[in-house]
Amino acid sequence: MKEQLIGRIQSREAVVGVVGLGYVGLPIVLETTKSGFKTIGFDIDPVKVNKLQKGESYIHHISSEKIRGLVDGGLFEATVDYHRLSEVDAILICVPTPLDEYREPDLGAVDATADAIAETLRKGQLIVLESTTYPGTTEERIRPKLEAKGLKVGVDFFLSYSPEREDPGRKDYTTRTIPKVFGGTTPACLETGVALYQCIFDNVVQVSSTQTAELTKLLENIYRSVNIALVNELKMLCERMGIDVWEVIGAAATKPFGYQPFYPGPGLGGHCIPIDPFYLTWKAREYEFSTRFIELAGEINTGMPRYVVNKLVEALAKRGKVVKGAKILVLGVAYKKDVDDVRESPALKVVEFMREWDFNVSYHDPYIPVYPKGRHGDLGLSSIELTEAVVKESDAVFILTDHSCIDYEWVSEHAQLVVDTRNATKDVKNHRDKIVKA
Question: In angstroms, rounded to a whole number, what is the distance separating the alpha carbons of residues 129 and 214?
Fold first, then answer.
């Protein structure tokens, strides 16, 4: 089975299936097809599937032209029919792994995908989980489901784990050029998986087990979470001391060794950093171990939305503004600059706290024309046009996301007050008296 599958991979006869066509799955589709593999995409959302079948992209940094070319060329099709998993030779699982309301892992999408694969599993298939999760998921949750009907892992089918490393909006690294960590359930699983991934990615980093690969991804994001919490805490201290934390970080970043800059903000966003560390916290309880750094970082980071809203309230009060009913224009609701992604965006929590003060809230974000409803609710707002009148009529402009396309000099000129959580106004030369950093 192993030699036959590797042969199909090397000859590009193998058909690849990608389950989950979001911010991870769709970029992988671009790379599998570019590498010469016919690819079938699977998703439970018929709206997404219909758009893709028409050659339309729903992700800003992936053009519809690219999707249309793949569909018209017969290299890609999308479907909601999971029974067609039997048609593919390799299945890459790229489904969400959020937290539930108790901040514990919600692996419902992973379990449902594994169940669907188990129904159609045949000899000679490769399954690779890409979704971020705790160490042991591949072995403990997926393997038993796939072996339940008598097929043996490493002999009849091959099971591996390779954590996604997507960074939407990044220019210097791409899906193909970011090194890809890869761990197999057995040596045969590792060999077959690496054979496929070396065709798709420039650099495949092999590790000894799926558990090692799973923990690698968590370490990467825990590292970021802890360091972001550190600078968020220092930001609050610097504010009391009358020191500009952004200037401190910039000066420290001139050191060519032993230091990497991290930046404060209004809270954590994206699917990774606000969620992934707590997957390890949950798993650590099984070993009677307390992950204190992770918990403390989470406490600090989750407190930032309320902190920046309090800074806004304070800035309005100092200028004699009536807080109740004040008109606030939020600039940017995406979780980071220059992307159309609101997953776990701090804007949702920030606006929730703003409404506790009875603010009249509107927002402008060129990447988010309508704020979508998500797991934690929605703003119930659409982006408004950024005009001189809108800026002048607002009691404060509240910068939550520092999109590059916005002219902050122009905003500062026309605004009554600018409260900046991202240091977006660092290069503004005039009207500095209107700007408050939060």
Answer: 10
